[in-house]
Design brief:
Order of helices and strands: HEHEEEHEHEHEHHEHHEEHHEEHH
CATH class of the largest domain: Alpha Beta
Radius of gyration: 21 Å
CATH architecture of the largest domain: 3-Layer(aba) Sandwich
CATH topology of the largest domain: Rossmann fold
Number of strands: 12
Distance between the termini: 48 Å
Helix content: 40-55%
């Protein structure tokens, strides 16, 4: 990362944190994106935190705008300062996100970086085959998870220089498959298993906590706590948020693969029990093929009387719990959420439609046991 060059060019000091928000708002969330920038400006940056934003809106202005969130002035008021106006672009295109990240990394030298991808989210798939996973532009395209990982790499996020926290202020993104796929680019992922309300993250509280300082794990936990508190205060229920350490996901994928292979080998015997599990497991609005991983393992353990299965499910639970450094949930509808979901479609058409897309994710390449189970379940 060309940090010394960027410091000479911008004259900005190196700080502990750089907060960078990519608001892909060229859709029905446009007003919420503008409101979130106002929340950021309610607190402002600080001598310890840089803050930069790019927003593409629907109808508010032509093109995109890059803002800097200033430190509070002598009156205690922070501002959003326009740094650059850009021509109209497709916020779902990899190059648009890459350009923003390169700009932010160059402009804001920092020891740690928190990057927020703000938009609609759909886990690793959507119900419309032409639309992908994140950063939907209603007048353009969207990103799938391999494209997102490649964009982070091209922007400079390498295994030796990872983004400290990748925040998904978007629906349904905290799947073990997604977090694992991004492990070489980011240290922690903060996001939701469930759909998110339009208000999304409480950015004033997030920036206030960053101003107080802390390591990536600590900041990740605080974001989860602030998110859940914000919805407890409004009474809006059935929300989730979790923080996951990406380095720990390999153990989760290995444990899940072992369990999947054992289930696949005995699908003729246990198929009925597994269909019962599938009807009872914790799932999420609109995308009921996403199931909470720990809840799934617990139900399998209770439903199938096999010592090896019980040992394997304990392994899944232990690995998942070790990866999830903070888990928040509020509302009866998400009470069995534990921080990571997994793909477990109930119907064959959904599985067949998205099987190839699923197999593009890293989790299926070396540890194929879960795909073997899904193949057997839907055969």
């Amino acid at each position: 990362m060309p940090r010394t060059r960027s410091r000479r060019r911008t004259g900005l000091p190196r700080k502990n944190w750089a907060f960078l928000a990519y608001i892909a708002g060229d859709n029905n969330l446009s007003d919420a994106g503008l409101a979130d920038i106002d929340e950021m400006a309610d607190v402002g940056s600080s001598p310890q935190v840089h803050a930069g934003v790019q927003i593409d809106t629907e109808g508010a202005h032509d093109g995109s705008v890059r803002y800097e969130i200033t430190e509070p002035d002598a009156t205690g008021t922070a501002h959003r300062t326009t740094i650059e106006r850009l021509p109209e672009s497709d916020s779902g295109a990899p190059e648009t996100l890459r350009a923003f990240l390169k700009w932010g990394f160059d402009r804001y030298p920092a020891d740690n970086r928190l990057v927020v991808v703000w938009n609609h989210g759909a886990g690793f798939r959507t119900h419309r085959l032409r639309v992908k996973d994140i950063a939907f532009d209603d007048y353009g395209t969207s990103l799938d998870i391999p494209e997102l990982a490649g964009t982070l790499r091209k922007a400079g996020a390498r295994p030796s220089n990872r983004i400290a926290i990748l925040g998904f202020d978007a629906c349904l993104m905290n799947m073990v498959e997604i977090v694992h796929h991004l492990r070489k680019r980011v240290e922690f992922v903060v996001g939701s298993e469930q759909t998110e309300p339009n208000d999304g993250w409480p950015y004033d509280k997030v920036l206030a906590d960053m101003r107080r300082g802390g390591a990536p794990a600590q900041i990740s936990r605080k974001i989860v706590d602030r998110y859940i508190r914000s919805y407890r205060s409004t009474g809006e229920q059935d929300v989730t948020q979790s923080a996951v350490r990406t380095d720990a996901t390999d153990a989760v994928v290995v444990a899940l693969g072992k369990l999947g292979r054992r289930l696949a080998q005995n699908i003729g015997t246990w198929g009925s029990a597994l269909r019962s599990v599938r009807t009872r497991v914790q799932t999420y609005e609109e995308y009921t093929d996403y199931a909470d991983l720990v809840d799934l393992a617990g139900l399998v353990s209770r439903k199938i009387r096999d010592d090896e299965v019980k040992a394997l499910t304990r392994g899944v639970v232990a690995a998942s719990n070790a990866a999830v450094v903070a888990n928040g949930r509020y509302g009866r509808g998400v009470r069995r959420s534990n921080g990571l979901s997994v793909w477990f479609p109930a119907d064959r058409p959904t599985y067949i439609n998205f099987r190839a897309k699923y197999q593009a994710l890293d989790c299926t390449r070396r540890h194929r046991g879960w795909v073997e189970f899904l193949d057997a379940y839907h055969s």
